[in-house]
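hey team, just a heads up i'm posting the complex here instead of the shared drive bc the drive is being weird again. everything in one block, sequence lines first with there labels, then the predicted structure for the whole assembly after. its two chains so it's a bit long, scroll down
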Amino acid sequence: DAKTTQPNSMESNEEEPVHLPCNHSTISGTDYIHWYRQLPSQGPEYVIHGLTSNVNNRMASLAIAEDRKSSTLILHRATLRDAAVYYCILRDNNAGNMLTFGGGTRLMVKP
Amino acid sequence: EAGVAQSPRYKIIEKRQSVAFWCNPISGHATLYWYQQILGQGPKLLIQFQNNGVVDDSQLPKDRFSAERLKGVDSTLKIQPAKLEDSAVYLCASSPDARAYLYGYTFGSGTRLTVV
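-- predicted structure starts here --
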């Protein structure tokens, strides 16, 4: 199975950009990279996903390394509401098309 | 569009009792998932349905857990009898079809179960 490695926690200041890294050195050519986040007392929320090219949406940007062995979720201007656990997930080949969650990165945003 | 609805929001039961959770996915979503999230950990998949059929239940403890999705819409997850280690948040998610790597999931807010 392709696995991801993320830092357990990160801190950011409010209104500054945040770069959340994810390593996935064993990614296969057809694995999509998904990012979800989970705010306190809520279910996970889809943020963004991509395959090879960088992706942008209203919530964030996803920068994917050329060799696809790592990716970075970019929050352009962190707010207190962005404090959450961020999960980097690959499609799990051995579990069909299901998404398997790891431990994620807990992002703390300081005012 | 309405999100994934789950009930109850909280449940406290004694060990060896039974409990059931209900999920109503987004209208038209063929694929439904149940996840278990123990405090401090990421969600762990229990079972996946495609319409009213089970796609994968390899992680479901079948001696005490059961799930069904009658008519391919609502789903219920049952635990009988409950153990202390079943204390967790039970999350339901849905996606348009089984290609979750394309579409991603929409999650409900979950049911927090405490077994005492």
